[in-house]
Design a protein that fits this description.
Length: 169
């Protein structure tokens, strides 16, 4: 499917950014769009590496941000991956306030209220939730990268708790 086919369905700012580098959507991207991605339905995407999952996440997050629906939180398993995504999104979406929250400090990080897209690791998000970060009530989109780590003995329990707490809010 050509990106042009969804031009009228997505925010014009998002389309402007995406159309600079994308002309044709990949099969997984088309499938999620048909499943309600643009209409903000909850979706789990399990596809191989390099199949277009990041773009799916970007569409979900940026639709909410650009349409003033709410903030987005992008959860990754490793600080290095968080830094990589932070740099990638900050460069690509220059008109979006992107924050990186991966520090070891146990706090609410109230400064994050000023940001649209917060990239973090599950352990840090757990800390933010436990400190009742006031900005969390403005989150409308949560992306969990590498969700298969729910089965990981060391990271899975924290990720499971974070997901449960976010759904309860």
């Amino acid at each position: 499917m050509d990106l042009e086919k969804i031009k009228e369905k997505i925010n014009p700012e998002l389309y402007s950014v995406l159309s600079q580098s994308i002309k044709v959507l990949r099969p997984a991207q088309v499938k999620t769009i048909n499943a309600g991605l643009i209409e903000r339905k909850n979706i789990i995407v399990c596809t191989p590496t390099a199949s277009g999952k990041t773009l799916i996440a970007e569409i979900a997050m940026l639709q909410g941000i650009y349409n003033n629906i709410g903030k987005a939180v992008y959860i990754v398993p490793l600080k290095a991956l968080a830094t990589e995504k932070y740099n990638e999104f900050k460069e690509k979406y220059k008109n979006v306030k992107v924050a990186l929250s991966i520090g070891d400090t146990d706090s609410a990080d109230s400064y994050l209220e000023k940001y649209d897209l917060i990239i973090t690791v599950s352990e840090k998000l757990d800390s933010l939730i436990r400190h009742n970060a006031s900005w969390l009530r403005y989150v409308s989109t949560v992306i969990i990268d590498e969700i298969h780590l729910l089965n990981d003995a060391s990271r899975g329990p924290t990720l499971e708790v974070v997901i449960t707490l976010l759904r309860a809010q």
